[in-house]
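sorry for the late reply, my laptop died twice this morning and i had to redo everyting from scratch. anyway the thing you sent over, i finally got around to it. pasting the sequence first so we're on the same page, its 213 residues, then the predicted structure underneath. double check i copied it right bc i was rushing
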Amino acid sequence: MENKIFSFSLEKNPIISIKVTPGHFTTGHFHTNYYLDVSGLKYDALVARDVARELALPYLSSTLVDTIVCVENTSVIGAYMAEELFQDGAAVINSGSAIRVLKPKLSSERKFIFLDNETEWIKNKNVLLLTTTISSGQTLNNALDCLAYYKGNVVGISALFLYSGAVPEQKINTLFTSDDIPGYTVTEPDGCSLCISGQKLDALISSEGYKRI
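ok and here's the structure:
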């Protein structure tokens, strides 16, 4: 599987790059023909800082942000985004403000929740939601349901990668889309053309990585 890996970069900042592996993969609720490794964008501090600068741009002069909620291990990027958003500058609307960076927990039902001492930074606050990849939209909807429950005011959604076929109702600010990977598909297991053709699954994938099957 590894010998098929290739990568693609953000044109205006090539240091921001995603590794891509073709194959047959499952998340447990959908199948896809590519595994996207975004770990370098999340965990390499220098790269994460550049990612944060790009993701913060749409909000700098127009969007008040009280809290950044980070799902799928995006807290490093989220911290750098906060730094970008409260930097000094006449055109920076959050200049000098306090911005909280939170990571929700998972309940036993695999739903996002916040601890009681964290809810004060969500309720009636302007919340920016940060995630890695939006493919089926399941994680995004889970996060939005959570923020609605805690009465957070979602003022923006940012992602590293967006599958165009997800068709979210909300505007997504993203670095990459599936248009950057010709032939990228996400399907229900029952309608997976790779399954129908008899191609075995290569790995179970998640926001953490992959495990061979």
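Residues 44 and 78 are 13 Å apart (CA to CA).
thats about all i looked at so far, will dig more tmrw
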